Amino acid sequence: MAVTVKSAREIELMRAAGRILAKVHQDLGDAIKPGMSTFDIDKLGDEMIRSFGCIPSFKDYNGYPASVCVSVNDEVVHGIPNKSRIIKEGDIVSLDIGVIYKGYHSDAARTHGVGEISEEARFLIDKTRQSFFEGIKFAKAGNHLHQISNAIAGYCEEFDLGVVEDLVGHGIGQNLHEDPEVPNHFQTKRGIRLRKGMTLAIEPMVNLGTYEVEWLDDDWTVVTLDGSLSAHYENTILITDGSPEILTLTEREIAELSK
Q1: Which is nearest to 160 in space by CA: 229, 103, 207, 104?
Q2: What is the pLDDT of residues 156-205, one digit of tens each?
Q3: Is the per-residue pLDDT at 153 higher than 80?
Q4: Which of 11, 41, 157, 233 is least surrounded by Cβ atoms within 10 Å, i.e. has the fewest?
Q5: How many of the other CB atoms lie within 10 Å of CB of 5?
Q6: CA–CA gap between residue 184 and residue 151 (Å, rounded)
Q7: Which helix (H) or strand (E) holds 257?
């Protein structure tokens, strides 16, 4: 397994990519409203990414046809934007977005409620987000990778939430997906020892019901097997000797976390 440790120059480029992606996420999330199509969301996201002089990481990646993965309700990830898929009040919408800045990727995902959403949906979004923060408590040099996985899984288990096992986080840098894979479910092996300068995309995908998923006929869209809601929260992080640096937090999230 070839896990890259980034140089100071590479880290600066990834910080810049992260700041840009955070801005895109905040502005695109704010723009979502009932009546928009998932195609509209993707088009706006693409325009935002390119306005910063960046390239969308996902466009044409392994044949994926869009710049933003837009997944609604029971869609876990990789929803393909469509002019006929209209967002309505009460939906939850997951946006998974990556940008390339001067040859380096950042990757992040957020799930948004559209207007008034159910208590269950809000609970799922909040717990999915918090599971990320529980996991990265262990994301520091000297610890083992699967300490992150087990912390995410353990937190979600407390609330009887289904942690998707068929999809994982990953290393990131000059390539969108690098070693190592970062599972979100319980692991018996310890995984690699984390080193300062590693960059990872940590991304719990969590369902209200079963952890099981299936792929639709488009070969991209992943949905919950039981039709339950799914949420997704992801950030690109930098491993340090202490707490990890989160490269893709929005300005609003930074303000909330500093309170």
Answers
A1: 207
A2: 999 999 999 999 999 999 999 999 999 999 999 999 999 999 999 999 99
A3: yes
A4: 157
A5: 13
A6: 8
A7: helix 251-257
Place of tokens 């799922």: 124
Write out the E strands in 55-189.
55-56, 68-72, 75-77, 92-101, 104-113, 162-163, 169-171, 178-182
pLDDT digits (tens, 9 = 90+) for 154-170: 999 999 999 999 999 99
Please name the residue that has the structure tokens 């706006």.
44
- For 60: left if phi > 0, alpha if psi spans -120 to 50, otherwise beta; the answer is left
Q: Which residue has the tokens 């040099």?
A: 141
- The residue count of the chain comes to 259
Residue 249 in tokens: 């937090």
Nearest to 48 by CA among 22, 72, 71, 80: 22
Q: State the DSSP string of 216-227.
A: -TTSS-EEETT-
Q: Which residue shows structure tokens 């952890």? A: 211
Two tokens, residue 111: 């799930």
Residues 188 and 16: their CA atoms lie apart, in Å, by 36
